[in-house]
Amino acid sequence: MPAEKAVVLIVEDEPIVRFTTLDALEDVGHVVLEAANADEAMYHLRHRKDIDIVFTDVNMAGSMDGIQLAQRVRAIRPHTGIIITSGIVRLDPMMLPANTVFLPKPYPHDMLLSAIHRLMAA
C-alpha cells in the first residue's frame, strides 16, 4: 500500500497499455480513472475534483495531444501532478509544463509508482 493513496487519471489510447497500468496502480491501492483520449480526460477533470495525478501519453487521437492536455491541466489545476510518457526518445523539456515528470516508454511500473510518490509528496 502506498504511503498516500492517489486518484490517478490515465490517458492512454492503447487499451492494453492502459489496462496493465491501471492494474499495477490499483494493485498498490491507488484509485484509477481511465480515458482513451484528452477529450475523455477533460470530462473527468470537469466532473471530479479529487484527481491528484494525470498520467498521459503524448501521441493520441482526438482534439489535443498529451502535451496540450498537460498544458490545459496545469492552467486549470495548478496543483495537480502531471506525468507524461512517450516512445519519443528526445522530448524537448521546454515543451513540458512546470513540475511535470517525463517517463520514456517503455517504463517499468516501479518508475511510475516512484513518480506518483514524488508528486504526491511535493
Task: Provide an overview of this structure.
It is a single chain. The chain has 122 residues and is α/β, with parallel strands linked by helices. It has a single domain, classed as Response regulator (Rossmann fold), CATH 3.40.50.2300. It is 39% helix and 21% strand. The chain has four helices and five strands. It has helices at residues 15-27, 38-47, 66-76, 109-121, and strands spanning 7-11, 31-35, 53-57, 81-86, 100-104. It has a five-stranded parallel β-sheet with strand order 2-1-3-4-5, with helices on both faces. β1, α1 and β2 (31-35) form a beta-alpha-beta unit. The longest helix has 13 residues, at 15-27. The radius of gyration is 13 Å and the shape is globular.
Give me some keywords for this one:
122 residues; alpha/beta; Rossmann fold; five-stranded parallel beta sheet; 4 helices; 39% helix; globular
Task: Write a brief structural summary.
The protein is α/β, with parallel strands linked by helices and 122 residues long.
Furnish the topology, listing elements before pairings.
Layout: E1 7-11, H1 15-27, E2 31-35, H2 38-47, E3 53-57, H3 66-76, E4 81-86, E5 100-104, H4 109-121
Parallel strand pairs: 1-2, 1-3, 3-4, 4-5
Shape: globular
Going by helix content, strand content and strand pairing, the class is alpha/beta
Under CATH, the homologous superfamily reads Response regulator
DSSP summary: helix tally: 4
* Beta-strand content: 15-25%
- Tell me the helix content: 25-40%
Strand order of the largest sheet: 2-1-3-4-5
Mean pLDDT, rounded to whole units?
Answer: 91
Rg from Cα: 13 Å
N→C terminal distance: 19 Å
